[in-house]
Amino acid sequence: MKWMVFYVVIALIHTSCIDKTNPKIVLPAAKACDIVFVNDSSDHYVELLPPNADSATVSQVYINLAIEKLNHYHHKKIYDSSLLIKGFDGKMRFVSGNIFKKNKAHAVVQFYEAGTSTFFVFENDTRWKPMNIITEYGLIKDSAFRIFDYNFDGVNDLAIISNSSAGRYMAANEGSRTLYLYLNDGLIKYDKTYAKDFGLDSINKIIYLGDRYDNSFGAYKWKNNNLILIKSLQSKNIDIDSIPEPWQTMLYGEQNRNF
Fold it and tell me: Which residues contact 194 (CB under 8 A, 6 or more apart)?
């Protein structure tokens, strides 16, 4: 009898959060519950959160959801699904596999909601477990992370891409990158590239950074996992077309879409 009462209560709560005109779409009842909802071709996921859930509670829901999807779609390297998060249309995306190390599985999971994102990095020895929780600023798009060997040490790293359209943190359309270097079996934040236009020359192992707020540009090389300036440029014109080479191509060329 107690179980019957429990199921009736859950059904009533869930019914209050469903759009009666389209029962497949879950909508938030603001005073009753917040909802994280995933719907894809094979299954769905509904998580009822207590009102005004704190960040730790929300993070745990995301972690549980991510692990569930990583296990369910273990054969996929890339996974996307639409989300409804607290009334906002969003997206969940993960990339998984030997993305950092050849002998160990990792996954990067992004939850995108209302222009903000939370990123979770998981590792897998025998099961998925979180190793990093990352929140970045700026205008985060729904495909805002890249995996690439940014410090040229033979091991892939992680970059979070953000954009700002004006002011001190203005960056190009492809955005600035906050780097998370994979060092000593973990990701270490290297934020000196944030709010800079970003370019990469993997042949010569040079990082190009541009700051269009003060019209300064630099070419850098890595030394002991820090960027060391090797050449600088001070421009009098903020117009991208007037910036000389190699900064023009390295910072604003099409190749920036690849890393």
Answer: 162, 169, 176, 177, 178
What are the phi and psi torsion angles at 241 (to 5°)?
A: -65, -20
**The pair of three-digit structure tokens given for residue 5, joined into one six-digit string:** 């009462």
pLDDT in tens, 14-60: 443 433 333 333 333 333 445 666 665 555 566 666 677 888 888 89
Report residue 118 CA to chain centroid gap: 6
Strand partners, 112: 91, 117
Number of H helices and number of E strands within the chain? 3, 15
Contact 65, 108 (CB under 8 A): no
Whether residue 248 has pLDDT greater than 90: no
Query: Around 5, how many Cα atoms within 13 Å sit in the side-chain half-sphere?
Result: 2
Q: What pLDDT, in 10s, does the model give residues 89-117? A: 778 889 999 999 888 999 999 988 766 78
Separation of alpha carbons 169 and 112, rounded Å:
21
Tell me which amino acid residue 30 is.
A
Tell which residue, 106, 109, 31, has the closest CA to residue 69: 109
Do 122 and 150 form a contact (C-beta atoms < 8 A)?
no
Edge-to-edge, what's the strand order for the sheet holding 78-85? 44-49, 34-39, 78-85, 88-101, 104-113, 116-124, 128-135
For residue 47, which of 20, 81, 79, 86 has the smallest C-alpha distance?
86
Q: What is the signed CA dihedral for 85, 33, 108, 250, rounded to 10 degrees?
A: 30
* 143 phi, psi to nearest 5 deg: -140, 60
Q: Quote the pTM value.
A: 0.78
